[in-house]
Backbone:
């Protein structure tokens, strides 16, 4: 148990240090973050749609594609939740059959229950984020197609941009929660694998978070 606790602390601190670094870098150089670049692109897209009377179909198609993608990911997250719940019935036999003896500490059934619970929470959070993304995409669908004389209102434009960026952020958080499940799955094979999985995850995040 102590080995796993130390591995969890190390992994958590590594992720915390990475996100603190990412936040400070984004504050210094906003264009260095793909999240900031995407937010700017969404705001320009909203301005283009609201400034034109001929792009209603484009707006609906784009938002529909976003809703479909978020719906697919939410469905996948819920299926994974159901799968984890079904696998929980076999907890008692896994510690002896799956855990590499040379790379892990002694594993109890209770610890495996904790690991499955953490994995379940990860997929549950992913479902929540994707569901919230769908909610805000739907709100934007109503707001962005208002008549031109109403759409040029500055407050409405800002609110539409805010809702669209919230939808994009929720979608991004849901995807990242899926990514976070990879080190958790590695944790089933031992605390060393949790640390290695976290290092691989941070390396991948550093690549995708950097604006091209």
Residues:
């Amino acid at each position: 148990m102590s080995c796993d606790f130390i591995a969890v602390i190390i992994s958590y601190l590594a992720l915390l240090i990475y996100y603190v670094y990412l936040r400070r870098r984004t504050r210094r150089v906003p264009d260095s973050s793909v999240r900031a670049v995407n937010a700017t692109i969404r705001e320009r897209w909203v301005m283009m749609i609201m400034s034109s009377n001929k792009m209603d179909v484009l707006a609906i198609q784009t938002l529909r594609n976003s809703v479909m993608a978020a719906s697919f990911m939410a469905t996948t997250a819920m299926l994974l939740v159901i799968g984890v719940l079904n696998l929980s019935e076999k907890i008692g036999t896994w510690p002896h059959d799956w855990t590499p003896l040379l790379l892990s500490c002694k594993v109890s059934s209770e610890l495996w229950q904790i690991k499955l619970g953490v994995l379940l929470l990860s997929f549950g959070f992913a479902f929540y984020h994707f569901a919230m993304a769908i909610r805000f995409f739907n709100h934007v669908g109503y707001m962005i197609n208002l008549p031109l004389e109403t759409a040029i209102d500055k407050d409405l434009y800002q609110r539409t941009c805010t809702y669209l960026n919230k939808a994009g952020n929720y979608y991004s958080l849901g995807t990242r929660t899926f990514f976070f499940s990879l080190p958790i799955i590695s944790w089933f094979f031992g605390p060393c694998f949790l640390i290695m999985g976290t290092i691989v995850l941070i390396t991948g995040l550093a690549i995708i978070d950097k604006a091209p």
